[in-house]
C-alpha cells in the first residue's frame, strides 16, 4: 500500500478460538476508506506489525486477565511500527516514525495517545525484535524478577524465541552459566553456536533430567519460564536454595482446555524459592529505565536477534500457528 492510497485493509476478530489451529473463520478481512482527520489527529501507515503469543489471551473471552479481551467485531490488537502520513496533530509531523498498539491494520487514525516516536534509525525489524516487547520483557523479567548474579546457573525455556534469546544473552553477558530449552536441534545449535549459551536441551528429544543434571551440576539458581510443559518439573526439582523463578509465559498451556498440573509446592518451602509472575502492561511506566538498562548490551554487540518476517496483513492469521508448532525462527512479525 502506498501512502496516498484511498483504501486500506484491516482484520477484525469475529469469533473466539476454541482450541486447535487459528483459522480464517475467526477473522473478517475488510477494506476501509481512508479516514479524514479532525484537528488533533494523525494518520499512521503501519510498516511492520508484531505477532505475539499474548494474542491468544487477547482473543479468549477471559475478562479476568491483565488486559481485557479484544471485543468481537473490533480490529485485532497488536503492536507495530509505522510512519505518519498525514497530521493535524501539533506533536507529530509527516514522516515521523512511531510505535504503539496499531492493530491488524494498514492504516490507523489516532489522537496520538499511547504512541511513541522511534528516535533511532535502526530498521523496523531490529526495533521490534529488541527494543519493543521482547527486549523490555527480557530485561524486566531477568533483572527485576530473576535477580541474576555472576557465577549462577540460569535455565531459560523458549530459549530461541524472541524473549528467551535476549534473556539468555543478557545473562551470559553478566557471567552466568546459561542453559536454553528449545524444540529443535537447529534452535539448539543457534543458541549455543551463535548466541553463546553454554548448553541447550531439546525438550522434544533429550532425556530432560539427565541433560539438565549434566549441564547444571551445581543446580539451578534462576529459571526464566516461557513455556511450561515437562521441562518445568525437571527444572523445579533442581532449583537451589533461594532460587528465583520468573514466570513470563506458559505457551504449552495456552490452547489447552485444562492446563497441565504444576509441580508440588513442597520444594518452595524446602528451597525457599521465590516464584513471581509478571506482565509488561504493569511496567509501561518503566520503559525508559528498561531501555537504559538494555541499550548498553546492544551497543556492545552482545545481543543478536533474528526476525521471522511474513508478508502482507492476511499472513498474520495462519502465522499465529507458528508459535505452537515452533515454526517461528526468532521474532515473528508481518511486513505490510
Ligand atoms: N509476561 C509478559 O509480559 C510477556 C511478554 C512477552 C511474551 N511473553 C510470553 O513469553 C513467551 C515467549 O514469547 P515470545 O514472543 O518470545 O515467543 P517465541 O518464544 O518467539 O515463540 C514461541 C515459542 O514457544 C515454543 N513452544 C511452543 N509450544 C511449546 C510447548 N508446548 N512447549 C515448549 N515450548 C513451546 C516454540 O519454540 P520451540 O521450537 O523451542 O518449541 C515457539 O517458537 C510466551 O509464553 C509469551 O506468552 C510474556
From TrEMBL:
The keyword Oxidoreductase applies. It comes from the Bacteria. Keywords: Oxidoreductase. SUPFAM superfamilies: GroES-like, NAD(P)-binding Rossmann-fold domains. Residues 20-334 form the Enoyl reductase (ER) domain. Signal peptide: none annotated. The keyword Oxidoreductase applies. InterPro entries: ADH-like_C, ADH_N_2, ER, GroES-like_sf, MDR_fam, NAD(P)-bd_dom_sf. GO terms for molecular function: oxidoreductase activity, acting on the CH-CH group of donors, NAD or NADP as acceptor. This is NADP-dependent oxidoreductase. It comes from Thalassotalea euphylliae.
